[in-house]
Specification:
There is one protein chain. The protein has 154 residues and is mainly β. It is 9% helix and 52% strand. Strands 1, 2, 3, 4, 5, 6, 7, 8, 9 and 10 form a ten-stranded antiparallel β-sheet that branches.
Protein backbone atom coordinates (compact mmCIF):
# COMPACT_ATOMS: atom_id res chain seq x y z
CA UNK A 1 0.00 0.00 0.00
CA UNK A 2 1.09 3.56 -0.51
CA UNK A 3 1.06 6.37 2.01
CA UNK A 4 -0.66 9.64 1.00
CA UNK A 5 1.35 11.29 -1.74
CA UNK A 6 3.37 8.14 -2.51
CA UNK A 7 2.69 5.93 -5.48
CA UNK A 8 3.40 2.21 -5.24
CA UNK A 9 6.21 1.19 -7.56
CA UNK A 10 7.53 -2.27 -8.24
CA UNK A 11 10.33 -3.95 -10.12
CA UNK A 12 9.01 -7.42 -10.78
CA UNK A 13 11.16 -10.14 -12.33
CA UNK A 14 8.74 -12.86 -13.26
CA UNK A 15 10.40 -16.02 -14.41
CA UNK A 16 13.89 -14.74 -13.60
CA UNK A 17 15.31 -18.12 -12.74
CA UNK A 18 18.42 -18.44 -10.63
CA UNK A 19 21.50 -19.11 -12.74
CA UNK A 20 22.75 -22.71 -12.30
CA UNK A 21 25.97 -23.14 -10.26
CA UNK A 22 27.74 -24.77 -13.21
CA UNK A 23 27.14 -21.62 -15.27
CA UNK A 24 28.05 -19.22 -12.43
CA UNK A 25 31.57 -20.61 -12.05
CA UNK A 26 32.52 -19.68 -15.62
CA UNK A 27 30.29 -16.64 -16.15
CA UNK A 28 32.06 -13.71 -17.83
CA UNK A 29 30.70 -10.59 -19.44
CA UNK A 30 29.64 -6.98 -19.18
CA UNK A 31 26.15 -6.03 -18.00
CA UNK A 32 24.82 -2.51 -18.53
CA UNK A 33 21.65 -0.58 -18.03
CA UNK A 34 19.53 -0.23 -16.14
CA UNK A 35 16.80 -2.11 -17.91
CA UNK A 36 14.59 -1.65 -14.81
CA UNK A 37 14.90 -0.02 -11.39
CA UNK A 38 12.93 0.71 -8.26
CA UNK A 39 12.40 4.28 -7.10
CA UNK A 40 15.36 5.58 -5.13
CA UNK A 41 14.46 6.10 -1.47
CA UNK A 42 16.28 8.89 0.42
CA UNK A 43 16.94 9.05 4.16
CA UNK A 44 13.69 10.85 4.94
CA UNK A 45 11.66 8.26 3.06
CA UNK A 46 11.42 10.51 0.03
CA UNK A 47 10.91 8.39 -3.11
CA UNK A 48 11.87 9.47 -6.58
CA UNK A 49 14.86 9.90 -8.78
CA UNK A 50 16.33 7.16 -10.90
CA UNK A 51 19.27 4.91 -11.59
CA UNK A 52 20.99 6.94 -14.31
CA UNK A 53 23.61 4.30 -15.14
CA UNK A 54 24.72 0.90 -13.93
CA UNK A 55 27.51 -1.39 -15.04
CA UNK A 56 28.62 -4.79 -13.73
CA UNK A 57 31.46 -6.94 -15.04
CA UNK A 58 32.01 -10.62 -14.32
CA UNK A 59 35.08 -12.69 -15.11
CA UNK A 60 35.22 -16.46 -14.60
CA UNK A 61 32.54 -16.36 -11.90
CA UNK A 62 34.00 -13.33 -10.08
CA UNK A 63 32.56 -9.81 -9.76
CA UNK A 64 35.34 -7.60 -11.20
CA UNK A 65 33.54 -4.26 -11.60
CA UNK A 66 30.45 -2.65 -10.08
CA UNK A 67 29.39 0.93 -10.79
CA UNK A 68 26.10 2.70 -10.14
CA UNK A 69 24.98 6.33 -10.51
CA UNK A 70 21.64 7.62 -9.25
CA UNK A 71 19.68 10.77 -8.58
CA UNK A 72 17.34 10.81 -5.62
CA UNK A 73 13.96 12.47 -5.02
CA UNK A 74 15.75 15.47 -3.50
CA UNK A 75 17.59 16.12 -6.82
CA UNK A 76 20.95 14.96 -5.42
CA UNK A 77 23.48 12.96 -7.45
CA UNK A 78 25.22 9.85 -6.13
CA UNK A 79 27.84 7.63 -7.76
CA UNK A 80 29.70 4.61 -6.37
CA UNK A 81 31.89 1.69 -7.35
CA UNK A 82 33.47 -1.36 -5.72
CA UNK A 83 37.25 -0.81 -5.32
CA UNK A 84 37.93 -4.37 -4.14
CA UNK A 85 36.07 -5.80 -7.13
CA UNK A 86 38.42 -3.98 -9.49
CA UNK A 87 41.60 -4.91 -7.62
CA UNK A 88 41.13 -8.57 -6.60
CA UNK A 89 37.52 -9.44 -7.49
CA UNK A 90 34.69 -10.62 -5.27
CA UNK A 91 33.00 -14.01 -5.42
CA UNK A 92 29.43 -14.16 -6.64
CA UNK A 93 28.56 -15.96 -3.38
CA UNK A 94 29.75 -12.90 -1.41
CA UNK A 95 27.91 -10.54 -3.76
CA UNK A 96 24.70 -12.49 -3.13
CA UNK A 97 24.98 -13.05 0.63
CA UNK A 98 26.97 -10.40 2.52
CA UNK A 99 27.46 -7.90 -0.29
CA UNK A 100 30.38 -5.86 -1.54
CA UNK A 101 31.68 -2.54 -0.22
CA UNK A 102 31.00 0.62 -2.24
CA UNK A 103 32.83 3.96 -2.21
CA UNK A 104 31.92 7.08 -4.15
CA UNK A 105 30.45 10.56 -4.15
CA UNK A 106 27.23 11.74 -2.57
CA UNK A 107 25.33 15.00 -2.29
CA UNK A 108 28.36 17.08 -1.28
CA UNK A 109 30.33 15.92 -4.32
CA UNK A 110 33.29 14.96 -2.14
CA UNK A 111 35.15 12.00 -3.65
CA UNK A 112 35.26 8.80 -1.56
CA UNK A 113 32.93 10.24 1.11
CA UNK A 114 29.87 8.15 0.25
CA UNK A 115 30.10 4.55 1.44
CA UNK A 116 27.78 1.59 1.36
CA UNK A 117 27.15 -1.92 0.14
CA UNK A 118 25.65 -3.71 -2.84
CA UNK A 119 24.17 -7.18 -3.15
CA UNK A 120 23.08 -9.02 -6.25
CA UNK A 121 23.16 -12.10 -8.39
CA UNK A 122 23.02 -13.23 -12.01
CA UNK A 123 19.62 -14.40 -13.21
CA UNK A 124 18.41 -16.51 -16.08
CA UNK A 125 19.49 -19.97 -17.19
CA UNK A 126 22.59 -18.55 -18.94
CA UNK A 127 23.20 -15.60 -16.62
CA UNK A 128 21.86 -13.13 -19.16
CA UNK A 129 21.01 -10.54 -16.50
CA UNK A 130 22.03 -9.36 -13.03
CA UNK A 131 19.75 -7.92 -10.35
CA UNK A 132 21.24 -5.79 -7.59
CA UNK A 133 20.29 -3.65 -4.62
CA UNK A 134 22.47 -0.99 -3.01
CA UNK A 135 22.59 1.39 -0.08
CA UNK A 136 24.81 4.48 0.17
CA UNK A 137 25.39 6.99 2.95
CA UNK A 138 27.26 10.28 3.26
CA UNK A 139 26.97 11.95 6.65
CA UNK A 140 23.24 11.95 7.45
CA UNK A 141 22.22 11.66 3.78
CA UNK A 142 21.40 8.18 2.43
CA UNK A 143 19.83 6.41 -0.54
CA UNK A 144 18.80 2.87 -1.37
CA UNK A 145 17.36 1.16 -4.43
CA UNK A 146 17.46 -1.82 -6.79
CA UNK A 147 18.04 -2.32 -10.49
CA UNK A 148 18.44 -4.91 -13.23
CA UNK A 149 21.06 -4.89 -15.99
CA UNK A 150 21.40 -7.10 -19.04
CA UNK A 151 24.36 -8.70 -20.76
CA UNK A 152 25.97 -6.63 -23.51
CA UNK A 153 25.82 -8.60 -26.76
CA UNK A 154 29.17 -9.10 -28.45
Amino acid sequence: TAAPGRKPNYMQLMGALETPAAVLSSLSGTYKGPIAFTPIIAERGVPGGSVTSASIELSMGMLTSYQVSVTDGLARAWSASCPKCASVGESLATFKSTGVALVGTGPTGSVDKATGTANGQPVGHTGQGVISSFALMEGTAAVTGSFAVSAVKK
